[in-house]
Amino acid sequence: MLPDKLFEIRLSEGKGLGAFAIKDIPVGTLVHSEKPLFVVPVYDPSEQDLEAIYNTLSPSQKHQFSSLRKNNRPFRSKCQAFEYNRFAFCDGPEYDIDADTDFGLFIIMPRFNHSCLPNAATTSSSNYKELQMYAVKPITKGEEISFCYSQEYDYMTATMRHACLLRQWNFICTCVACRADTPFGHASDMRRVLLRGLHYLLTGRDLAISSENGSPLEDSKLCEAMEESQGTLRMVTAYSLLSVYLREAEGLAGSVTAQWWGNASMATFARGKLLPDGNRAIDHRAWLEARTWILNNLETMRTCRPPSHIDIRRSEKNVLLIENAVIL
């Protein structure tokens, strides 16, 4: 049993080791916090680089590194061990990882298994050099604690996700969203296709999966027409709220849902008249909507971020901004 006293590591059927709750865990609970064994500034360091780092570790750290396993077997190389146990110090999705992103090797955190409908989420920051996992759904005693290996899976059909998981991790997820022969699984595919299109319209860019899985909008004329309306505040509000609805219907919780609550709120608030003192004048109904949505943003963000995180501070600042608006 680990010092956290919230979970234990044991065998998970068909998955090797997994983390299981030993008591009920409420939403927003810090499930696990861990510092990396070591950090490197590149995604795929060479075997020679990792060997040099390994030689600087203490005997106990070397033992921890050597104890890492894949399907109860030692890794073939230090590069393979790093590939299967690394996490990026980046809060955003994969396309936010850049040349300045650091990567850490972790011992306990990789024992948490993947689910396309996870009950937990990880967060990290280049400033903290620490990885944390929060419960984004209520977790019952005995339930396996899981997180999603990639935010991009939120926008893939089950078939697409399985292909990626098989190629990179050599397994297929069996969560309810991955069962295409069930009503939920069928609806899940449709929701995630819609979410991908909405993400494209809201951000102006597709995800890294686009190169091998086509365009999020098949009709080029529709795509062009929608891109032209992308910048309108009313469209941002509508797309953001629809994204929240689809994510909640799918059972996807965490920071991305919080982000779209925030987008809907601030787009509505921005439609108000800018005053000379920097405040905005906004009609009462729009103010109520903006206030409700920014409070949802803050509440959701608090379930998956530490109190001092920049995302929390940003949400709190936006709450004050809307609270201080001039109501018409």
Give keywords.
globular; alpha+beta; three-stranded antiparallel sheet; 15 strands; 328 residues
pLDDT < 50 runs, ≥5 residues: none
Coarse shape: globular
Overall pLDDT metric: 87
Percent of residues in helices comes to: 40-55%
Question: Based on DSSP secondary structure assignment, what is the total number of beta strands?
Answer: 15
Largest sheet: 3 strands, antiparallel
Structural class: alpha+beta
Helix-strand string: EEEEHHEEHEEEEEEHHHHHHEEHHE
Terminal CA distance: 58 Å
Strand order of the biggest β-sheet: 3-11-10
Radius of gyration over C-alpha positions, nearest whole angstrom: 21 Å
Provide a count of the helices: 11
Classify the beta-strand content into a percent band.
Answer: 15-25%
Could you explain the architecture of this structure?
The chain has 328 residues and is of the alpha+beta class. The protein has eleven helices and 15 strands. It has helices spanning 47-54, 59-66, 78-85, 158-169, 183-203, 210-213, 220-228, 233-250, 255-270, 284-301, 310-323; strands spanning 7-12, 16-21, 30-34, 38-40, 69-70, 73-74, 86-88, 103-105, 113-114, 120-125, 130-135, 146-147, 273-274, 280-282, 326-327. Strand 13 and strand 14 form a beta hairpin. Helix 5 packs antiparallel against helix 8, helix 8 runs antiparallel to helix 9 and helix 10 runs antiparallel to helix 11 (310-323). The longest helix is centred in the middle third of the chain and has 21 residues, at 183-203. It starts with 6 loop residues before the first strand and ends with a strand.
